[in-house]
Design a protein that fits this description.
16 strands; alpha+beta; single chain; 2 domains; Rossmann fold; BirA Bifunctional Protein, domain 2; elongated
């Protein structure tokens, strides 16, 4: 037997309605916020992620699935969604569309890392990308999009944590301060963070090793090094959140795990799912379009894992709605073809109908109807066909009502409404 690969997971038929619920709410939120769907390929040129994500990140150094194709090109399965969207924005001239351009995606992403709750080596992300606006209002709207989705999914208490990591100008001074601070404690850092000390000291703040996190807790605050422009932007975000009545916590240790972020970064955190409670992370990346080869363009967005949303909803007792079930099951006694054709007619009228196609006995057909949780059942035989009438049985209480066979679709649809 060939087993599933470590860090991957099958979406089974009996669980799929949970994903349907999340995807349905994503589409609703996208519509009310005027977000348009974008889809990019599962794999891209490796250079895109080296330039976009950053060659000092764990994603690039440790987690990417990279291979050489038959043409000798280095190809990488996408480890995150933003770089591909930026590439598409540039390549397809999307800057010519009305700005800000507001997009969303649902995509698989691939990272070779230790599997944990809600984070697999192949997992799925819902992401939002908004290009063209550099205002605090746009940052806050992005946070509102995430909050709206959480509310519709029944996740009522996520904590919003925000920070500003400045721009390349003011971050140079901050990086120097970080290097000086961590250099005096280098012997106590993990091997990875000792490497980060020379390459990108900011990454040490994102380390999950306990000893490194304890050292990072005493590091200088990035907020003390912001230039006037970045400070004004950060204050604008806070003021607007206050005016909107959105609670938040300023956490000056949030840096996110990607090099492309500038100014605002944020996370939504819950405490119900165990390891790593961040269910959404994002921020502003004003230099990324230019960095990948386009004209300067401000951008902001976020990503959240769908697997982690499922776990979070389960943990807080949120409803996924009813598992889909047939409106009616057509059992038959010696009239399999008639039942089959009537099933197709009912489906054409918007009725979720099902019938037996395996030659079961009537008793076995009724057991199947029960297992499928069909709301109504009808038994179709020669006498019913000759009379043009059938008895419709309501499965919850066993009551029956005889109706003309020609009225069956209307009858079921009326019962669904009422």
């Amino acid at each position: 037997m060939i087993n599933i690969m470590k860090g991957t997971k099958d979406l089974l038929p009996q669980e799929s309605y949970k994903w349907d619920k999340i995807e349905s709410e994503i589409r609703y939120v996208a519509r009310i916020f005027n977000l348009h769907k974008i889809a990019t390929p599962t794999f891209e040129h490796t250079e895109l992620f080296l330039r976009g994500v950053g060659d000092t990140t764990d994603i690039v150094n440790k987690e990417m699935y990279t291979f050489e194709d038959k043409g000798g090109r280095s190809v990488t399965l996408k480890p995150e969604g933003t770089a591909g969207v930026v590439r598409s924005y540039i390549e397809n001239g999307l800057s010519q569309l009305p700005q800000p351009l507001k997009m969303y995606y649902e995509t698989p992403v691939f990272r070779y890392e230790r599997p944990q709750a809600g984070r697999l080596r192949e997992h799925h992300q819902f992401g939002v990308e908004i290009y063209g606006a550099d205002s605090p209002q746009q940052d806050v709207e992005v946070m509102m999009i995430a909050r709206s989705l959480f509310a519709r999914l029944g996740i009522t208490s996520p904590e919003l944590r925000i920070n500003s990591i400045g721009c390349p100008t003011c971050r140079r001074a901050y990086n120097d301060a970080l290097k000086a601070y961590f250099a005096s404690k280098a012997d106590d850092l993990c091997p990875t963070c000792r490497e980060r000390l020379d390459k990108n000291a900011l990454r040490i703040l994102d380390c999950k090793e306990e000893k490194c996190a304890a050292i990072a807790a005493g590091a200088p605050s990035v907020l003390d090094y912001l230039c006037d422009e970045c400070r004004t932007h950060h204050e604008g975000v806070k003021n607007l959140l206050d005016k909107a009545g959105i609670p938040y916590v300023v956490d000056d240790k949030i840096v996110r795990g990607l090099d492309y972020y500038t100014k605002t970064v944020f996370e939504f955190v819950v405490t119900n799912i165990g390891a790593k409670a961040t269910v959404c992370g994002g921020g502003r990346y004003n230099n990324l379009v230019e960095q990948i080869g386009g004209k300067p363009c401000p951008a902001v967005g976020f990503g959240m894992g769908i697997e982690r949303l499922v776990l979070t909803m389960q943990a807080v007792g949120a409803s996924f709605g009813e598992e889909p079930a047939p409106d009616v099951f057509l059992a038959n006694i010696g009239a399999a073809d008639d039942a089959f054709l009537l099933t197709q007619d009912l489906r054409a009228e918007g009725v979720a109908a099902e019938c037996d196609v395996m030659g079961r006995s009537l008793k076995s057909q009724m057991k199947l109807a029960d297992k499928l949780a069909a709301k109504f059942t009808v038994v179709l035989g020669e006498s019913e066909l000759a009379a043009g009438k059938v008895k419709v049985k309501k499965m919850t209480d066993g009551t029956e009502e005889e109706i003309p066979l020609s009225d069956l679709a209307r009858y079921i649809n009326d019962k669904k409404k009422g």
